[in-house]
Amino acid sequence: MKHVFQCYFSVLKRVPNVALLEPVLEGLSKFAHLLGVEFFEDIVLTMEGLVDKENLRLLDRLYCINTVFVILSGEGQLLNVDPSRFYRSVYRLINQLPFEKRPEARQKQITMMAKALDLMINERRKQLPLSRVAAFVKRLLGVATVLDDISALCLVALVRSFFIAHSKLVQLVEEDDAEGGAVGVFRADIDDPDVSNALGSSVRPELKMLTRVREKAIRSFNS
């Protein structure tokens, strides 16, 4: 396996060819848990350089992010790496999901995004500010309102897992009797989850919209 990874790194560092990068990034994402410690720092630095390249497919950038967090969730957690930029990257990429019109391609994107976000949000729950998690909840539910039913259900299921892992998120759905609801404006126009003011808002509008426009499966899932 070591020789396979060496081939991957050779492609990543020497061949700026998107056609070759795609299978390499998919392979790294799938087998990152088998990487030796000696590769960790190089691969994280390489993924940092690739994740925001506009010429890469959305799916490939998600492979980059997933690879990094597979590493950071294992022995790589000892690396001196600030993962904040990867949170900002995937937060921005969420808004691209509705632009994929091919159902199979979109499902692949959502599956990989869910896999990466489970590592980023649920597995690292003790290391994250609640405001960041709340921003992901708001953005995911907002995007779910404009997706097809199957895709929307996947995102709602992902958000539900966030509520289970981060119990204090319940404030996003609670009524505030004194104020008539949550105060503050969620800054959906800002691509930094840490300054979006998600905790000052509510997800009740998104949930009501999902209940109104989606089929019975989603309505019952929300209730």
UniProtKB/TrEMBL annotation:
GO biological process, one term: DNA replication initiation
Pfam families reported in the protein's UniProt record: CBF
Membrane-traversing stretches: none
Domain CCAAT-binding factor, residue spans: 62-219
Gene Ontology molecular function: any one: chromatin binding
GO cellular component, one term: nucleolus
InterPro entries recorded: CCAAT-binding_factor (IPR005612), Nucleolar_cplx-assoc_3 (IPR016903)
Coiled-coil ranges from the UniProt annotation: none
Similarity remark: Belongs to the CBF/MAK21 family.
PANTHER family (alphabetical): NUCLEOLAR COMPLEX PROTEIN 3, NUCLEOLAR COMPLEX PROTEIN 3 HOMOLOG
Annotated protein name in UniProt: CCAAT-binding factor domain-containing protein
Organism: Cylicostephanus goldi (Nematode worm)
